[in-house]
Design a protein that fits this description.
Ubiquitin-like (UB roll), DNA polymerase, domain 1, about 400 residues, five-stranded mixed beta sheet, alpha+beta, Alpha-D-Glucose-1,6-Bisphosphate, Chain A, domain 4
Amino acid sequence: MPAIELNINDRPVHADVESRVHLGDFLREAQHLTGTHLGCEHGVCGACTVLLEGEPVRSCITFAAACDKQHVRTIEGFDDDELMRRLRQSFSLHHGLQCGYCTPGMLITARDIVRRFPDADEARIRLELSGNLCRCTGYVGIVNAIKAVLQDLKEHPLALTPTTPAVSAAASEIVMKRGGAFETFTAANASSFARNAASLPAAADSQAESQSAAQPATQRKGWTAIEDSFVVPFGLDQVWAFMGDLSSVAACLPGAELTENDGEAVKGRIAVKFGPMSANFAGAARLERDAGAHRAVMRGAGQDNISRSRANGDVTYALTGEDGGRQTRVAVTLEYMLQGPLAQFSRSGLVKDFIRRMIADFGARIAARLAGAEAPGSGPVKFNAGGLVWRVIWGRVRRLFGKSE
C-alpha cells in the first residue's frame, strides 16, 4: 500500500492506503470525519463534496492516493471560517435544509459560489448548484440563503466583519427585536431564557417597537405570520385582567400545561396531534404588557421532544372595546419560525386555517371562563385536531361553491 501525506483541516496526516480507496471512504473510515456524506458514490449528487487545495471535489470519485501532499478541508474544518458561519446561519434562517444529508456538500458548494461570484443572480446560483442534489427542500430556501449572504457581504465585507453577527437584513431585524443573537431554546435552559429575557435593554424594546410599526410582520423572512381576531362578550378591563393571568390563559389552550410561572416568565409544554403528526413542545415564554395601549406580546421558544424540531414564536394581542363597552375585540397576530422536520408543514394553507380555528376556539374558551364555566377541553391533555381539520376542509368546500360558513 502506498504511503500518503495529507493536510486535513490543518492537521498533518500520514497513512498507508490502498490505491483503490476513495478519499470519501478514507475520510470517514480512517479519519472518522463523518460529516462528509456518501450518497450516490458516482460523483452525481454532491453530498460528498470537500475542498482539495481550495477547490470543491467529489470525494467519492477521487482516490485518496492521488491527493498525496495536498490540503483537504471537510465540513468539520470550517469552525473558524467567518464565511461559512454566515452561510450556516443563513441556511437556518431561510430553511435551507430539512433532512440534512446533502447539507455538508451543499454548504461547501455555496461557499465556493459566494467566493467566485460575488454578484451572482438567482440564475447563476441555480446553475452553480446544479451539481448538488437535494430531495427535500425544493432548493428555494437554499437559493434564498445564498442570496442573503451575497447581499450581506456587500454591506459587511469579511474584512469589516461587525462584532454583532449579521447574516442578512432579515437576520439583523430578528436580532434587534430579540435584543441579542437569534437562538432557540429547550426546556433544559428555559430558566436562563427567562432571566435573559427579563433583562433585555429598554432601548432595544423601543427600537423593536418602532421597527414593528414601520414594517409589517409578514415581511420577516423565514417567519410565518397569521392575523385574526375574536370577540368576547365582556368589558375591556375585565378581559385585559384575565389575559394577564397566564395560568388562566393556559387553561384555555387545549393540550397546554404550565410547569413554572412567576407572573411574567413561564415554563411549560403543549401537546398537539394534527392528523398523523404529533408534537410535544417544551420551552419558555415571557409576557410583555402595555396597559395603556391594552396591548401585549408573548415571546417564546421551545423544542419538540418527538421530532426535535425547534420553534420560536411571538403572539401579539391588542384589545379594543366595542358595542358601548359591553364586549371586547381581541386582535391576535401569531408569528412563528419552525426549524427541523416540522418546518415543511408550517406554512401550508391547511395549517394556517387550522391555526385560525384554534384562535377562534381559544376565544370561545376565554368567554366560557369569564362566564364562570369550565373551558371545554382545557387542562394538560393531548389535543386531537381531527375535528378541526374536518371543519377546515368542509369550510373550504363551502367557500368553493360560494357558500358562507
